[in-house]
Design brief:
By secondary structure, the protein is an alpha/beta fold. It is 40% helix and 15% strand. It has 13 helices and 12 strands. The protein is globular, with a radius of gyration of 23 Å.
Length: 338
């Protein structure tokens, strides 16, 4: 305060007023992994935060970077500050959870969480309110960018693979944090349910590209010993999605990509796609979900367009800071304090 008073005394009345106004202003905290705070690497994640910080700073908003392990959202003095919590799942008045959504370039900036934890799952999807032509054009552009060149968020095999015809595609998520937060029954129980109720349909399994779970591998081995035919593959995800009848996972982003192939999704975990996909927890509920998934007619393009355009931030568009602050206002945060 001594420094503040000294500064004020050296300013004119108008300058002092403006200075004190700035002292009362809130700020934005980017709560990020330590390596992001130290700017040790550059990738699509860090570039998003770099750009957001640059734009906010350019309009006079103070931005701080604080490591996630310091838990800035729990510090009482930060309650008046807007906090972006990377890959967070906290519902607090001044917190927006931020993270990549299911399609590269689209981000969850959300009051509840990211990906399977986001508040999009609480909303009612009403296809009659979504323009069919706009949705088709939007999804066609995504297919041009990702489906036809066989691109995804993670590196994919470039060579084509031989797969069965008309199969159930099961996507494991390994031991990654997102899967642990959204798992209800285990992935092993999920596979057991699929094996018991798949009928004559082949089962094709793809492990997570970043981390394979030893428990999942053991379960596959046990089911094979019981005579269940399971094909493990590292095929390109778009080859799998093109050939399958339905996708099954805890809450995998691959199932969202499957919507661009017009393939229904069944989820065994918590998901923000529950307003379009099907839920299962055991063999009986999986059988019911599978029957519905194979027979229902779904407006896939309209849902993808609605989810990404209404619930996510498109990082490719100009004025990223405006889109983020709009999300803050929608969540109830008074952005005028910034």
């Amino acid at each position: 305060w001594h420094d503040t008073l000294t500064t004020v005394e050296s300013l004119s009345m108008n300058q002092a007023s403006a200075f004190l106004d700035r002292q009362r202003c809130g700020s934005v905290i980017l709560a990020l992994p330590r390596k992001f705070v130290l700017r040790r690497k550059s990738n699509n994640l860090t570039l998003f935060y770099d750009r957001l910080e640059e734009e906010l700073t350019s309009v006079g908003i103070v931005v701080e970077r604080i490591a996630l392990n310091k838990r800035p959202h729990e510090v009482r003095g930060n309650q008046s500050k807007l906090i972006l919590l990377h890959n967070g799942a906290r519902s607090l008045p001044n917190v927006l959870n931020s993270g990549l959504s299911y399609i590269p370039g689209y981000w969850n900036i959300d009051r509840k969480g990211v990906r399977g934890m986001s508040s999009a799952g609480d909303l009612l999807f009403e296809p009659d309110t979504v323009d069919v032509d706009k949705a088709a054009a939007f999804c066609d552009s995504l297919r041009e960018k990702y489906v036809f060149p066989r691109r995804s968020q993670y590196m994919q095999a470039r060579d084509s693979s031989v797969l069965p015809e008309r199969f159930i595609a099961v996507f494991f998520q390994g031991d990654i944090q997102d899967a642990q937060r959204t798992t209800r029954p285990s992935s092993a129980r999920m596979l057991q349910s699929v094996a018991l109720e798949s009928g004559d349909l082949p089962i094709v399994v793809k492990h997570h590209p970043l981390r394979t779970s030893a428990r999942d591998v053991r379960m596959i081995g046990l089911l094979r010993q019981k005579g269940v035919t399971i094909v493990e593959t590292d095929a390109n995800v778009h080859d799998i999605l093109a050939g399958c009848l339905v996708t099954v996972s805890v809450s995998s982003g691959a199932c969202f990509e499957g919507l661009l192939h017009s393939k229904p999704a069944i989820f065994f975990g918590r998901t923000d796609l529950k307003n379009f996909g099907y839920s299962a927890q055991c063999p009986d509920s999986f059988r019911q979900a599978l029957d519905r998934a194979l027979h229902d007619v779904k407006p896939f393009d309209q849902y993808v367009y609605w989810y990404l355009s209404s619930n996510c931030v498109d990082a490719s568009k100009p004025d990223l800071w405006k889109a983020v602050l709009a999300k803050a206002r929608h969540a109830g945060f008074d952005t005028k304090t910034l």
